[in-house]
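We store amino acids, tokens; thus:
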Amino acid sequence: MTYSLDLYEITDGLIGRVPQLKNITYISFLPMDGGFHKILLRLSHPEQLKSMTISGVGENKNLSVLKRFVNLETLYFASDSGVTNEGLQHLRDLHITHLGLTENKGVTDKGVKSIIKIKTLEGIGLRGTGLTTQGVQQIKTAFPEAEIH
């Protein structure tokens, strides 16, 4: 049996119980404070996680924790989550198939190089980002078969 976990508040008590969680395939971080990385560092079975939504990035350097999730397929950043070009650098080695960046204005043409390094992408949400038409075209060229909105 697998489970989804929607987190509305990240507390010290919750962080202490995280290593006990098993069979989590989807996790959603709704707090906007960026505390998601504290939970992700403590998950005892990172290979089980397939899908994730992050609502508040906090510091983009915290996205480096995502490298633990070797089987992650879908990564969505909620609107105005705070992800930027700096954060995209931490996604380069992931094998995700779907990336949602919609309404994250900190993603600009400078982040295109990082997006293109994610060779497994099949779907990308770019609407409302800071990308120019030229940046979007570079991504479309790199992923001609991908669904890009």
Remarks:
- The chain has one domain: 3-148.
